[in-house]
Amino acid sequence: xxxxxxxxxxxxxxxxxxxxxxxxxxxxxxxxxxxxxxxxxxxxxxxxxxxxxxxxxxxxxxxxxxxxxxxxxxxxxxxxxxxxxxxxxxxxxxxxxxxxxxxxxxxxxxxxxxxxxxxxxxxxxxxxxxxxxxxxxxxxxxxxxxxxxxxxxxxxxxxxxxxxxxxxxxxxxxxxxxxxxxxxxxxx
Length: 188
Ligand SMILES: Cc1cc2nc3c(=O)[nH]c(=O)nc-3n(C[C@H](O)[C@H](O)[C@H](O)COP(=O)(O)O)c2cc1C
Description:
Helix content is 38%, strand content 18%. By secondary structure, the protein is an alpha/beta fold.
């Protein structure tokens, strides 16, 4: 089945994860019917600060304003099957956990959960306080997946991009797309 995916980018550190996920979704376009993107105001600021560019505006995907409740994925009837929040700030995590649907990001997440579809939060902060941990528990109990932006090193990544890809490749696996990426095996 061709996938309909929402990518929400928020103002946590780690814009590189959003960039690499959008790059991957572009590469894997044959498996994807539609990608809708929404960015928070802070997401744009952090992206520009961390990546020194505004390349988020170059993708061939449809971008929606954070205030646009007319976007298709603001309703379950549009049948977007997956939403990834990448990176996901503790603020957005908290708003999703408490059901605040006051912008397109939190509304879309609310819709995905109520429709029992796949919500993946690439949560980023360290250390975590009890409020963060409880919010992660709440989202998990509601059916969401907390996929922390925590890289792995057993593939021996050489560059910052390789390190960040260890997170993004796990997100692609969670979305359920076929992807040619490093796999741990007995041959290693
Ligand atoms: C450079 C920078 C890095 C940040 N990193 C984080 C972070 O890793 N995690 C986090 O929860 N907030 C982080 N913040 C703070 C969020 O941007 C802020 O809480 C914001 O209100 C989140 O709103 P949003 O989720 O709507 O983007 C960072 C802010 C800046 C400017």
